[in-house]
Amino acid sequence: MNTETLSACSAALPTVFLAVFPAVGLAAPPPLLLAAPSRLLLTDSPRLVPSVSPIAFLAAFLIAGSFAGVLGCRVLRRARSPAPVSTAATASVTGVLWLVVGWCWLTAVWPPWWLPVPLVVTTLVVPLTLADLRHRRLPDVLTLPAYPLVGAAVLVAGLSGPGVEIMRRACVAGAVFGGAHLLVHALSRRALGGGDVKLAGALGVALGAVGWVALLVAAALAGVVSVFLSFVPRWRDGVPHGPGLSIAAWLLTVFPGPQPEVMR
Questions:
Q1: Which of 21, 110, 146, 206 could form a disulfide with 202 if both were Cys (CB 3.0 to 4.6 A apart)?
Q2: pTM (2 decimals)?
Q3: Average pLDDT, stretch 41-70?
């Protein structure tokens, strides 16, 4: 792929995402994603090593993400109560989403210290989404380790960037987001399962690192996805809530918008 083609593709990516995921506009207004083309050209990235091609960097993200997806599949298969999912699907989707995260990092969509958070969120939500869609459950083997994994990612980001304030807010937000889902679960177990509550708490930590508004946007986006799934005949008697939570968390951590906590 020549430089002109690569530059054109890089400049077009934000527009494509806004077309495919209109809800991204809620989290990342046009000034963030539709930046000047010179900022979005991988060849002009401030984070590239001069001797390394941007294609090599993106390929590294793609390959590493694929391996992360395979690992997630193995964890689900070897759980005490297995929830096997397609290895090919999990590896390919995780790899592509890691590629998108890598592109955001290379083009300075957000500060470099934020990178661990979207990578960890991506690694967790892909296998969990596929498991929920196939088995209608979110296994503890991934939802419980999500807490230390997301917490560690936020810790690294906070120590590398804005400091302890982002970590404090993330912890409180996780409790609030998880607590709200726990309340709904207590009122109607059919509406939300225990796995949804556990996942909500972990993802709430990542969303809290983005900002308080992210919790409200995530709840709205998750609801939209759940309504969409309710039209699928397979889930008319009960909609899995995990995919909505996962999609919302991924969009908001990869495209956090001009939140001062993330964008400074």
A1: 146
A2: 0.81
A3: 78
Residue 78 burial (10 A CB sphere; 0-12, 13-18, 19+): exposed
What CA–CA distance (Å, rounded) separates 199 from 145? 10
| Residue 14 confidence (pLDDT) above 50 | no
Dist. CA 247–CA 254, nearest whole Å: 11
Distance from C-alpha of 257 to C-alpha of 18, rounded to nearest angstrom: 13
Task: Name, in order, each residue with C-beta under 8 angstroms of 101's C-beta and a sequence gap of 6 or more.
Answer: 61, 115, 118, 119, 122, 254
- Which residue is listed with tokens 């109560």? 81
Tokens 């990612």 locate to 153
Q: Is the dihedral of CA 57, 61, 66, 71 positive or negative?
A: positive
Q: Can you read off the two tokens belonging to residue 96?
A: 């592509």
Q: Name the domain count of the chain.
A: 1
What is the tens place of the pLDDT at every residue in 161-218?
Answer: 888 889 999 999 999 999 999 999 999 887 789 999 999 999 999 999 999 999 999 9
pLDDT computed for residue 4 by the predictor = 40
Q: What is the pLDDT of residue 134?
A: 93
Could you tell me the two tokens for 34? 């539709």
Q: Is the CB of residue 211 less than 8 Å from the CB of residue 256? A: yes
Burial class, 127, CB count within 10 angstroms (exposed 0-12 / middle 13-18 / buried 19+): buried
> 């709904």: which residue's tokens?
184
Q: What does the radius of gyration of the chain's CA atoms come to, in whole angstroms?
A: 18
Enumerate residues 6+ apart whose C-beta is below 8 A from 44: 38
Closest CA to 195 of 238, 138, 133: 138
Query: How many alpha carbons lie under 13 Å from residue 254 in its C-beta half-sphere?
Result: 27
Domain span including residue 26? 3-263
Report the pLDDT value the prediction gives residue 51, as an integer from 0 to 100: 60
